[in-house]
Amino acid sequence: MNEYLAKALEPAGVIIESVIAEAAPLECVVLVEDRFDADVRFANNSTTTNGIRRERRVIVAVFHDHDGGRAVGIASRSGQVDARELVEATRAEARRGAPATDASSLISSSAVASDFDQAPGETDLSLFGSLLGDLGDCFARARSAKQVLAGFATHEVETVYLGTSTGIRLRHEQPTGSFELVARDSTGIASTWVGRGTENFADIEANAIYDHLAERLRVSTNKIDLPAGRYEVILPPDATADLVVDLSGAMSGREAEDGGNVFSRGPGETQIGERLTDVPFELSSDPSLPGISCAPFLMTAASSADVSIFDNGAPLRATNWIRGGVLEQLCYHRAGARRSGRLFCPPIDNLRLELPGATKDLDDLIRSTKRALLLTCLWYIREVDPATLLLTGLTRDGVYLVEDGEIVGAVNNFRFNESPLDMLRRVSEVGLATRALSRESGEWMNRTEMPPLRVEEFNMSSVSRAI
Amino acid sequence: MASLDEVFLALPLEELDAVALERAQSKGASAAEIRIEELREQYLVLRDASVEGTSDDVEIGVGVRVVIDGSMGFSGTVELTKDGVARAVDFAIEAARVTAKARGRRVELAPEPSYGLVEFVGPFEIDPTSVPLDERVGLFTAWSEQLLLAPGIDHVTASLHSVNENKHFANLAGTVANQRRVRIHPVIEALALDESDFETMRTTAPPVGRGYEYLLGSTWDFESEIASMPQLLEEKLSAPSVEPGIYDLVIDPTNLWLTIHESVGHATELDRALGYEAAYAGTSFATFDQLGTLRYGSQLMHVTGDRVTPYGLATVGFDDEGVKAQEFDLVKDGVLVGYQLDRQIAQEAALGRSNGCAFGCSPFMSPIQRMANVSLKPAAGVGPTTQDLIAGVKNGIYIVGDKSWSIDMQRYNFQFTGQRFFLIQDGKIVSQLRDVAYQATTTDFWGSLVGLGDRSTYLLGGAMNCGKGQPGQVAPVSHGCPSALFSNIRVLNTKQESGR
Q1: CATH says A3-212 is which class?
Q2: What is the ipTM of this complex?
Q3: Can you give the pTM of this predicted structure?
Q4: Interchain contact, A258 vs B154, CB within 8 Å
Q5: Which tens digits make up the pLDDT trace of B403-427?
Q6: Cβ B342 vs Cβ B321: under 8 Å
Q7: Alpha carbon distance B489, B440 (integer Å)
Q8: 3-state SS of chain A: helix, strand, coil percent to 5?
Q9: Chain B contacts of A393, Cβ < 8 Å?
Q10: Fold held by B6-237
Q11: Do A75 and B57 touch (CB under 8 A)?
């Protein structure tokens, strides 16, 4: 057996130094991802499954210079690892491999982060202590009201240690949490949802969230059937996130240049610098955004179209993807940026859409509405046509008819066919950006701030009988 | 030859079993399971015949699940030490006790016999994760270059996903199962540009529970499919855009597997039907009170679930609750007659025994009910062939290969696209079409099933990454089906849907 597996886990810093020493004189990058998480799920007014986990993954990339360029070997292992085995595996691949098309010199540094030797952050179920008590109360209330609650609370702390043979020693500790609650009436004719992103659950009040859901179920007793068609809709921040996260996922410089992307402008060309919408939106990412801060340096376990293993440790700075309605940046790794004459622009783990100066909240938009559909969130969103970024998906857990500033009842669900880019061109009103959780994408893009939007002629392609 | 992995078996499996099960029992657990897993997973991605990214990940860990005082708790850890496993047991018990504060129903598991020491190895010849990277790169580079040399092809992306899964399971009942299976999924996609537009064409080779020999042997004719792609793509790029309306559809198994997955596979998961996925994956229109009465589709519709089909991605010897693999009916003569179950759901619904659909996608994930291989039976006897089905269509479309898919949270309303669309007029294929999507409600769609191909048209399709549960889990699953004919289905033009 592998004797290393039966050993207690060594500190991340010890592993990093072992790997770098083993790989010398070849250059290398080492990432140690230490993750603790705890979660509890609930359905039918009861807790169901749960979990407490402790994971570790060690990723090693070793670089070898050939006559034709620089090749890389990459491997990752979980648990307590054998530095020699990892280096041997990656070194052999690097020596046999073809030159990497994303090759660059490694980022270097002579400074060691002050927290580099700190143990990883942890979490456990004690974080949910008061929440579980509150949920017990909510379940009792729901049973009395003939309603059914379901949901999920999850919290993880991931600490990533990054070391390179070029001197980088960085550490980033990222707490990530979310709370979701769905309320359905027991006859199954109405359903509604609230989702919140959180770092520590101090801001989650289950009873208050259930109060909101109960009110939405109350207005849902007036059921209104509407046909498919194009409607004025109001998207709350969570629903805006559902679509804008997918828009940001299409911001690949390489794919745009290859011509198979909504941001393409013919072979080898992109739409950078072109106006996308007359509404002067700003779509940005910034590691230092209060409340949704994230890693200020790049950490990646593999290369892809626009992200490079060679770029590990590169500082991440505030980036405007769209500014004043104009496409300002697409993603490029350093090698891609050099090849295309663009700026190095790696992805960042948060996303904010805003209209500078906007101040209204969702209730303001509802109050100023003559007639529109108020959505809750969107679901099962998939790309239909990359040329237009046409997406299809469903409305979920609450579509409401707003007339003369009031919610007057609940409407059936719809399948939509819409492009988020075209949608931004048809926005007629924008509110203040606030923390939002995409129903479907929130699991991997938790940190977003989005505004409520009023959108004209939103394409509801057909009626869904689902509740 | 396929066999259990001796290196994995050399881990101190029995020693860790004893720590986990004895500790759980001594602390009052009425049921306890330990899973020790090693999952090796490799990705290779090429763009225009150059390597864009690779990964080679080995995940080893332990998962412990207990039932104590009517509550369930789970914990997973990378620490394969006696102390680490003991901590995992304590965390699992703590999870069960803490969450009992808000518990509304006691957890009980349907009974399952003890099988003692058992093993299962999925059939394969070459462990796909044992093949050196340069050999894999060489094969996919050659295929990519072949396409890039063809007139009209501007870019080619290629990827290979390879998995070797070793799993050890032991429970308090006395079942100890050692299992190994492999899987592999190759994809090659070509992109062609013209002055104002572009189109893509992807291989339709399905992911399979086979080894690297899948890429080298005669199971799938990769050479012929790749050789055919440039002309197919050229024709597609210049094909007319579909006129939206009502069509008869002949759906190839390379497309229909996904429609089965979404509209039958997920809809017949009883945990969904009972509300356990209400907050995430959704519920089901096929509610439990309609078992035995719901008219799901036409009389031709016979759908089974199984975990035994050779080379199936959901095929195992025993599931992650120690239940022996089985085959069972879900829809027979067009009527809902069964569900996919795990032990908790089987007990809650008083169905007696689980049919073996529990799966955790890693040692760090609690097993939940996941999809079996859900498959549509072909027509008995000889014929009709796919050509026979096409010959009977006056105004229709023949759809090959999957692409975009979406279905609602009760599995009613769906929309699918594909890789290749062929206009059928008066029983003959006239040309390709572009911009096609078909949209329907599940029971209407299956009610319009009017023709099934015979066994010669049958193919085992599938996916490596079916998603469900919170935290999210992925599961591999296969779906066998023949070509099939559906009448009067709504077809959309995707360009018109985008307002252009």
Answers
A1: alpha beta
A2: 0.95
A3: 0.97
A4: yes
A5: 999 999 999 999 999 999 999 999 9
A6: yes
A7: 7
A8: 20, 40, 40
A9: 406
A10: PmbA/TldD fold (3.30.2290)
A11: yes
